[in-house]
Fold this sequence. Notes:
The protein is of the alpha/beta class. It has two domains: 135 residues, Aspartate Aminotransferase, domain 1, CATH 3.90.1150.10; 254 residues, Type I PLP-dependent aspartate aminotransferase-like (Major domain) (Aspartate Aminotransferase, domain 2), CATH 3.40.640.10. Helices cover 42% and strands 17% of the residues. β8, α8 and β9 form a beta-alpha-beta unit. The radius of gyration is 22 Å and the shape is globular. The N and C termini lie far apart (44 Å). The chain binds the ligand Cc1ncc(COP(=O)(O)O)c(CN[C@@H]2CONC2=O)c1O.
Amino acid sequence: VGALDVERIRSDFPILEREFDDQQVVYLDNAATTQTPDPVVDAMSDYYRYTNSNVHRGIHHLSQEASEAYERAHDRVAEFIGAGGREEVIFTKNTTESENLVAYSWGLNELGPGDEVVLTEMEHHASLVTWQQIANQTGADVKYIRIDEDGRLDMDHARECITDDTAILSAVHVSNTLGTVNPVAELTELAHEHDALSFIDGAQAVPNRPVDVEAIDADFYAFSGHKMAGPTGIGVLYGKQHLLEEMEPYLYGGGMIRKVTFEDSTWADLPWKFEPGTPQIAEAVGLEAAIDYLEEIGMERIQSHEEELAEYAYERLEAEGDVEIYGPEPGPDRSGLVGFNLESVHAHDLASIMNDHAVAIRAGDHCTQPLHDKLGVAASARASFYVYNTREEVDKLVAAIDDARQLFA
Ligand SMILES: Cc1ncc(COP(=O)(O)O)c(CN[C@@H]2CONC2=O)c1O
């Protein structure tokens, strides 16, 4: 697919010119949030400058324009992920809220004693805690598909876990801690063989690779704008239309109704039924601009770039001899991040020394505490890459690690 032009891309991100103690920042914390390119910032600024108005089609030009921009952003997202149309694209605050929407709107009404919710051991808290709590509230049981020593899902165990008692499977597409790419189409097929629903958490996948929700055949698919060069405050829940039609909203108010009387109310058409109140309009404009930006680069090109950086980082860290790397070896099963620990240095201390070198990585549990318990560590360090990162930045990461080793030797 050809290499992406990193230097030209970097010129769209002035934040990457920032210096701390005369050292240019090396931003390797993209799984936490990505940076925002000028075209996205400009699109949102221009919205506020020239189009700002409330939506739901007020009877004036500005409201018409704002409404069209907000509705069009749903169409753009549908096109980007291969959804059937705007009716299958709900705007939420983030991936976490997308998980909660289905857990409250579908889970509370459909789950009961005897039903099973199947998760994986590598789930982010957005999925794990949400479904764990809904199962507790409804008397349903939770089962976890095991991971093997390489951080891949044990698919034999998946076939054991997913049975006719399974009501829903909620699985992460790409682990934000291990980098593991899960076989989500195969998992979805397993769920469907047992008449169970499949909810795929795509927060670490949509920004980094082509995603076609209809090819995966997921019933629900969630992701966040801030992890894909877009703004915070906007996420997406994709849902198959027939399911969303059947689901009752769990957040009420204006904009999501059709008719209200003192006695009762009826609901608006999809997707508006699940979007109460004044929505995040500028963020929707920003999300559309982010999709345009990423697609101009090319999702296959982005995936290749990240996998090459992850492979280079993996090899350099492995060559250090005292770095434990979590997750699969470089290849199709590993996305653009590396989670690791340095034998002699706690992850938090390591990140602090990285920071002395203006190298921004994440250290902690990455909202996957049960996974860290399974790994036998309280915390891990994580370097995660995006379209503007370079091999030279990986070299700076490794040089800073060498410095940390000296300090703690
Ligand atoms: C796989 C995965 N699922 C869900 C979420 C939750 O997304 P929101 O916070 O947008 O709801 C994240 C966020 N990644 C986190 C955010 O900070 N560090 C991380 O690794 C994630 O990586």
